[in-house]
């Protein structure tokens, strides 16, 4: 079962990844096939485990102020700043539609 | 023309009142220098991990209990992914699968026909309450085509309260939110001041014909006050009805309320349906809460949140406070609503009652009709009243002892309002407003009046 171009395009938009070439898509296919093996196990009536931490105790912190006040340090790596604000583009710049951008998926 | 049934649900985000953030130790404070209340975790720098703030858990449990919810002894954290400049991690930590509280209810009251005399009680179901992170703030600089990002708010704890679509109009939505606001403020779990962004409301609105399935719903955002909430909801209901009656369709979209124009407009920057790719938060184990029964023996109390302990310490909720006021003072239910609706008014009323012989049933009239209307006229809060509870009590005592008439009392009240620090007694003497008790003196006055109006007297005597 192949992953459709629509799904690949959708993933590229959502996660801003670039499958780049046939090898990238093939790797994805193989990863899905590998994970699909899980379906062979009968899990009826078994509670899913979503983390190996599930038996650990979730540590609760006291409500004290212990951090912050490091504006200079935080802004050190910012490419652009305006008076201690980070600068970002005006809004999300969406990935162009499939037909309009240069991507390996076009040919598929 | 077939009738329309409007359906309104609400998603309310209440900022938790705590010293530090939900998963980090940076301070929670409104209006501070940009990016000064931001830790490395809040800025999503690599190598940082979330550490849950106990106070935030307690706030959510308190709120859940006050809203009659079932508290989930085991709740989970998830990541909700989307890209935006004020969300540095690219995801928000929330509780999508198993939130901390579910299946509650909130009762609120409405006046029928705008008359305070007829109140009806309604209930809205609370679907769930979940803990989640707030995002930072974006300031849009359109002239320079850029967005300025301040992360002070990023990571502040929120309680998202989801109300089922049990409401049918702006008035109901507003009343429900007002009651929730009062509850949160009473609990102290959130200060819930809408103007400071501590309480944000999004409304989900749709219309349908009776007996038919629910219509397509729109989400309305950017509602900045309870008054605007009612307006926004009612506008959207009307807009949808008109659209459908003209043969149009409703898009499942997000719209913003424009308070200046009083209408909703489609929001820009919405790239179609969002896919949040929820996944369990891998860095946080499940949140386990205890009660008296399940509390383990040798436990570190700092590491335990005991639901029963919190339950026992819940303060009287607004509905209970109102019932107590009605019972104790013999006032009407609608009076108790007004008392609780104004910050400090209940205390003021009770202080006056303590210092006067006048019956509370009579005092309440002075509080609600005289004091409150003066305060409203001058846009003052109870705390700012130039007339203190002492002064008002003194005045009411004069009235109660029949040393002045009620008309005179109103005059004295108007004088007191000027805030010239005169006592009621001083004003009465100054303006000679004392009731004249002496029979002889009264006869002289009446005779003088009759003597001065001979013609009118003749007309009256002749019938």
TrEMBL record, chain A:
The entry lists its GO molecular-function terms as: transferase activity
Query: What name does UniProt use for this protein?
Result: GATC amidotransferase
Q: Does the keyword Ion transport apply?
A: no
The highest taxon in the source lineage is Eukaryota
| Signal sequence annotation | none
Its transmembrane ranges are none
Listed under GO biological process in this entry are: glutaminyl-tRNAGln biosynthesis via transamidation; mitochondrial translation; regulation of translational fidelity
Q: Which organism is it from?
A: Chordeiles acutipennis
TrEMBL record, chain B:
Keywords of the record: ATP-binding, Ligase, Nucleotide-binding, Protein biosynthesis, Transferase
Enumerate the SUPFAM superfamilies for this protein.
GatB/YqeY motif (SSF89095), Glutamine synthetase/guanido kinase (SSF55931)
GO biological process, alphabetically ordered: glutaminyl-tRNAGln biosynthesis via transamidation; mitochondrial translation
Report the residue ranges that make up the Asn/Gln amidotransferase domain in this protein: 347-462
Show the InterPro entries listed in the entry. Answer: Asn/Gln-tRNA_amidoTrfase_suB/E, Asn/Gln-tRNA_Trfase_suB/E_cat, Asn/Gln_amidotransferase, Asn/Gln_tRNA_amidoTrase-B-like, GatB, Gln_synth/guanido_kin_cat_dom
Q: Which GO terms describe its molecular function?
A: ATP binding; glutaminyl-tRNA synthase (glutamine-hydrolyzing) activity; transferase activity
The reaction(s) annotated as catalysed by this protein in its Swiss-Prot or TrEMBL entry are: L-glutamyl-tRNA(Gln) + L-glutamine + ATP + H2O = L-glutaminyl-tRNA(Gln) + L-glutamate + ADP + phosphate + H(+)
Instruction: Tell me if Repeat is a UniProt keyword of this record.
Output: no
- The answer on whether this UniProt entry bears the keyword Protein biosynthesis reads yes
Query: GO cellular-component terms in the record?
Result: glutamyl-tRNA(Gln) amidotransferase complex; mitochondrion
> What family does this chain come from, according to its entry?
Belongs to the GatB/GatE family. GatB subfamily.
Q: Which NCBIfam families match?
A: gatB, PRK05477.1-2, PRK05477.1-4
Q: What is this protein called?
A: GATB amidotransferase
Q: What is the lineage of its organism?
A: Eukaryota, Metazoa, Chordata, Craniata, Vertebrata
Gene encoding it? Answer: Gatb
